[in-house]
């Protein structure tokens, strides 16, 4: 009987191995051989899943985006307005080890996207979705009388988007001033100002 | 008579050539040979200035930071409080071609800093200086009665820092939603909320 292999499961194992190797050696230092070894694969066994390192990276990046997206959707269930907006943003902030690891993957991804149109498109689509969801929660907040400002929702969402993206950098590269506590305080400061200027 | 060479000037020419090559080919695709050709140098002529690509990149990055720093200091001359804070932040926002190019250099720099302690230290020092200056202008604003919020200055400065760093990504990778007009509107929304919650 042939061995039954769960290919989707193996792909996810490879992505997780990829993260660990990138976190350890950087994206340039991550070789297919290292990733195979980390995932417990024989060297040639990666090829059927991912013919090139670039294919593997593209898959790893979309996995981070969809994982974050799933967490964000779960966190907002049963909420609306500013409460939903806060829960949504909290899932993007790099507040724990998993999310700091994600930030360590997203930074090299941005760098790749600068010269790779397919990766740039993947990023732009994910960012538009986040932004649209933030605008939607701002509209709910406005309808519920929760907003203390007449600033257009698009600019408030833009401010929040740029803030949460900036935290991906500072949580990794300026961690003292951007500990989990401080990032939450910064988010709450922003949402507090949007709510009632206090 | 030996040819007189202005070595500092040549270093800056090399840095500018480096920027153009990185913007065109990405940091991985930028070779010392391309950079030499772009700057009008013979291939071996770079070595006395920068023994390795890494030395050249480190110098190029500190040049971006000091150039931005100089612009920020110039922009705040004769200002204090929220007016100085706005002028300072405006110089970081990627509002024109030069500053969008700088963002294209800073993104690969972050990626390098993830696994290179010397680059991480250079970044952390520059970020602390920006942050301290923002805190100073917030203190001036507080003393002048310009602040409409009791949020600690450190958290407001952290919010602004993360916002301006996030714009380095979005101005390059989500340029439609983060055009110069929109970025200024987002900054003004944030400063308006800090001033009086309007």
Automatic annotation (TrEMBL), chains A, B:
Among its keywords, does the record have Ribosomal protein? no
Q: What InterPro entries does the entry give?
A: BetI_C, Homeodomain-like_sf, HTH-type_TetR-like_transc_reg, HTH_TetR, Tet_transcr_reg_TetR-rel_C_sf
GO MF annotation terms? DNA-binding transcription factor activity; transcription cis-regulatory region binding
Keyword terms, alphabetized: DNA-binding, Repressor, Transcription, Transcription regulation
Question: Does this entry carry the keyword Transcription?
Answer: yes
Ranges of the DNA-binding region feature: 31-50
Q: Which domain of life is it from?
A: Bacteria
Provide the HTH tetR-type domain boundaries: 8-68
Which Pfam families does the record match to this protein? Answer: TetR_C_6, TetR_N
Instruction: Report the PANTHER family cross-referenced here.
Output: HTH-TYPE TRANSCRIPTIONAL REGULATOR RUTR (PTHR30055), TRANSCRIPTIONAL REGULATOR-RELATED (PTHR30055:SF228)
Please give the name of this protein: TetR family transcriptional regulator
Instruction: Please name the source species.
Output: Cryobacterium cryoconiti
């Amino acid at each position: 009987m042939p061995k039954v292999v769960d290919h989707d499961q193996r792909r996810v194992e490879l992505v997780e191995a990829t993260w660990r190797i990138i976190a350890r050696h950087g994206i340039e230092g991550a070789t297919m051989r290292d990733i195979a070894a980390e995932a417990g694969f024989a060297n040639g066994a990666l090829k059927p899943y991912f013919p090139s390192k670039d294919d593997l990276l593209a898959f790893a990046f979309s996995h981070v985006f969809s994982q974050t997206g799933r967490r964000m959707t779960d966190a907002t269930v049963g909420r609306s307005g500013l409460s939903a907006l806060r829960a949504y943003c909290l899932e993007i902030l790099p507040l724990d080890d998993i999310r700091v690891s994600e930030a360590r993957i997203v930074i090299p991804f941005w760098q790749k996207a600068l010269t790779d149109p397919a990766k740039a498109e993947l990023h732009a689509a994910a960012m538009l979705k986040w932004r649209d969801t933030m605008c939607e929660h701002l509209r709910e907040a406005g309808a519920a009388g929760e907003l203390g400002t007449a600033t257009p929702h698009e600019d408030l969402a833009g401010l929040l988007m740029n803030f949460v993206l900036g935290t991906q950098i500072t949580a990794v590269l300026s961690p003292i001033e951007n500990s989990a506590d401080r990032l939450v305080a910064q988010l709450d400061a922003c949402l507090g100002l949007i709510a009632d200027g206090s």
